[in-house]
What we know:
alpha/beta, Helix Hairpins, 5-stranded antiparallel β-sheet, 7-stranded mixed β-sheet, 53% helix, 23 helices, Beta-Lactamase
Amino acid sequence: MKEPKDKSPKFDELRRQAEELLKICPKYPPGYLEADIPSLIEELEVHQTELEIQNQELRRAQLELEESKNKYFHLYDLAPVGYLTLDQNSVISEANLSCAEMFGLARRYLIGSPLYLLADPEFKDILFRHLKKSRESTSKLTCELKLSKNQGAALWVQMESLADHDEDGRFISFRIILVDVTERKQIEQDLQQKEKDLTLAKNAAEAANRAKSTFLSNMSHEIRTPLNGIVACVDLLKSTPITPEQSSYLDMMGISADSLLNIVTDVLDLSQIEAGKINFEKGNFDIQELIHKVCLALRPAADAKSIQLTYSVSSQVPALVYGDPNHLSQILNNLIGNAIKFTRTGAVDVHIESLANDKDKYQFHIRVRDTGIGIPMDKIYSIFDPFEQADSSMTKEYGGTGLGLAISKHLAETMGGEIWAENNSPHPGSTFHVMFWMERGTRPEDILEPENSIVGPLLNMAGRKGWNILLVEDNDINQLVAKSILEKLGHRVEIAENGKRAVDKFMAAKYDLIFMDVQLPIMNGLEAAALIREKERGTERHTPIIALTAYATGEDRLRCLSAGMDGYLSKPINSHKLNKLLKSFANGTPLPLEDQPQRLVPDQIMDREDFIARCLGDKELINGVFNIFVKNHREYLSNIQAAINSHNAQDLMFSAHKFKGVLLMLSATRPFRLASMLEEMGKIGDLNKIEEVYGRLVRETELLKAALGELVSTY
């Protein structure tokens, strides 16, 4: 090894460093140092410079990394969502500042706490199932949870979780994102509460409307009761010897009573519509013939005012349709009747056309045009509101309740149609339009004999002195009275006390007519009627069956007709109504569907005059009714008492109904109402205060027995 001529301490130090480097990195071959120490020194200085450069770059990279790390943690802490890391035991190992603020806690209190402790008790199971499912999945899963903030306040969050796994698929930890949705949840809950409140308010309003309609319906029935009595008395007085002056008074009474009945009928119709109790009875009918009959019936009113009433039918209108002719007729009567009423001179024209049709339906447009007083523009819509007329002064000049158009609007809309009005400006008068759909008729033969009509089978009864009648009634008093009335009218009567016995008698003999009570023991009247119709099937035999019941609603009538009955007569049996019905039979005209309510005078133990009239003034019949009542009234009361003692609502309803029928026949007002109350209690299962009502019924029954005894002894 060549050594420099001038050795220096620096040379020795460099030699030592070189030897140390060769031990660490034996890059050079043995003897290299001895060969060229200066070269080695030069090369070492170059490497040292490179190392210093690399160290500078490393320090710069470390600074950049530290800066990025600080920026990341700054973003991590201030993110608008909460970040959590859960270990294998679902304990929080990391949490950002936003998460801590979300819970209202310092970060140090969050870290080390199980997430389950922060969940609302009702949502712990949901959290557990969510994390279990997330642990087994490689996808991000989402759920909605209710957690608890500091001080127990609710914290609704949308939680997204992703499980971390090692290379072998073993679970390591959860990464959790929490989004605060408390405000949104509160808004949803407020909306749900408002919707619930609105529903409750809507139900309350509908209930109030139904209560109003029910009240109007009940009041209408109560008003019709004495009015029917007035009409009946007027008819009776007309049949007695009277002076011409008295006859004119009776005519005025009849007109006034009829007018009142029309008003009450309007109120009843509207209340039934609003209460949702209106029934539509569909069938095949000739719509052209219906319009003809309505106009024919209203022509006398038009002729009396010298008004020309005409109608026309478009050639596209079919003859046969399937729908509700009764309510369509009611709409036409209201519109045409109004047109005549509000027209002083000129004409009323009715036109019907078919606008469109498809495979099963027709669309109709009816126009009623008049030359009357017209409608103010500010009233063109409100005239269809109840009790509303175009001018309040019209009530005095033209009369009426203002209900006709409201009823027509309800009926048209219920039939799936619409109704509106317009002025004929610049010409006088107004035009009312009705648009509706009807189904295509399917049974042409039905228009020859209206549904539920009994014209055919009764034609051969005309001119006969008496008919064979089967009276199906289980009440002794009703049996006696009905049989007496029918026999006085010249008919032969047999009695069946239950539905099964009625069917047996029907099979054994031929009857011209059957009066069938609805509520009967063993087999009720509806079942018996259906069985009789079944036995007549395939034969030419059709025995008319008339329902007898203390109820008089459209629903009851529909039930009777659906069971195969031909008509309907409400109890108590009234000789006037019965005679009218029998005349319809004899004349071969369609049977009137009776729905008049029973006549009862308020606040009397009994209506003596009404009871005497029911018994046709027959003293022997009155005595017979009294004896039967005295004999059986305790049995009726005992049956009611037994039902009360056993808390059997069904038996109570049945027993009270049976006694109610007896009291109705006796015109016993106050006892009848008490029996009706007991029947209703049994019907709805409300047995509160039942003993009090029953006690009152017992006392009123004793008073009734005394009143009947006094009547019998003095009549």
